[in-house]
Amino acid sequence: MSDHITLVGNIVGDPEERLTRGGESIAAFRLAVSERRFDRERGQWVDGHTSYYAVSVFGELGKNALASVRKGERVVVTGRLRLREWENETKRGLSADVTAEAIGHDLRWGVTRFQRTPRGDAARPDAADTATSGADEWAPEAGPDGSTSSEDPGHAESSERATPVAAESTPF
Fold it and tell me: Is residue 74 part of a domain?
């Protein structure tokens, strides 16, 4: 049985690339999730118990994780949790394994920059040009006179900008 879980923690070691029996690439790393609480008696924040999770990341997400995250970085991981009992010659234990469905940096502690990976058509010669242009992909198409739909060809650009309209109260 597996449960859906979201974890926020620090990567313990650099992600490693592993291969399945079928030759597929997997990113694997350990995630430390610590409880922090404010101790009123001491007047300071203290660390509580730390739980460790083995995280496996498959497919394109795994390839992107190998290129994006490193040891010590704080990340948010969402995925499926599976608790697994194990035993060897000297001891027994319980392992918490997570198969990641999404990973991202925790932006409370820093900034990151998103870069879209090229699609499967990256092998085409003209795909390299569009993959690096980024913003051009979303730019409006120019009309026959070179103007875009957001431009008004009948009016010159005013040096004063219109006052922005307040956004609606809902975030979406």
Answer: yes
pTM of the entire structure?
A: 0.64
Residue 169 lies in a domain: no
CATH of the domain at 51: 2.40.50.140
Task: Convert the pLDDT of each residue in 14-51 to its tens digit.
Answer: 999 998 899 888 999 999 999 888 889 999 988 889 99
**Which of 64-68, 75-79, 99-103, 134-138 is predicted least confidently?**
134-138
How many domains does one find in the chain? 1
Strand partners, 67: none
Note whether residue 172 is domain-resident: no
Tell me which residue range forms the domain holding 103.
3-122
Rounded percentage of the chain residues whose pLDDT exceeds 70: 68
